[in-house]
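Um, can you check?
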Amino acid sequence: MKTKLNIEMRKPGKIIDEEHLFREMAYEFNTSISKATYVEVIHKNYIEFISRYKVGGVAKVELGDLMLLTYDKATTELRICILQAKYRSKKYYYFLDFKADIFQWELLKEKPDVTNISRRFDFPKHILNFRNDYESITAYGIFYHDNISGDIDFLYTLPRCINPNMIPTSRVTKCEPKFSFRCPKLLGSPNRLCRAGIFHKETISSCSIDVFEQQVLRCKVGAPINDKEVKRWVIHLLHSYKGRATIPEVIDELLGYLNVGDSIEEDNYDFECVPSVLVVVTDSEKVINEVINID
């Protein structure tokens, strides 16, 4: 994926930012093994939660920038991961340093119940914590340029694997410290063959877009949805957004695997305020790992 993505992004007129990079990533997931589609959402998705750092005790942030939904035909497992996206265009001195909002990091790290502040209820309040046995319900996805080649690559990591250089000692109204990636094996530099963040049931980190691709295709990124309310919400979301998808047939295929019809009952969800969505339908039994021997 890294080679193809960089070839595409070097073409004249290409805009390089988080949105366009994820859109291109979605396109590259379309292979003989997997199909993918991307749905761009224009409106922001602000929620509130109880914060230990915010003045007043309540922080208002986005839920995330991207919702990754992965379905594995081999296991019939549907996973969800809510990603906060970053694009680092400059060279890094320490792998990988970047600025981020402390309250956003707190939300994704602590996974509290959330309250939607749009005009209608948007998310199940336990969307971030419906599974305590999986960590990758939330993650950071950071596009960066390799210091040697200049190629764009991708760091996927859990919030607990990045550290702020300062944490407020008293409650504040705004805080955007610099964060740095804490590699599980303290390797300190990108390595496309690294196994440090790859475990049997889920992947917690990878600093290679090729390894990330393989882990998504193996359905190892995100938490399996076993909660009826969350699954119902996702199904409504898919129905609502298939008309906006880059390849709507992928959503129809997924809905077919989830055994739901075209007609659904009325609901109170407002789907104008969710993160952008990347849907991948894969078959882990057919995945040929060309990057790293995980098994």
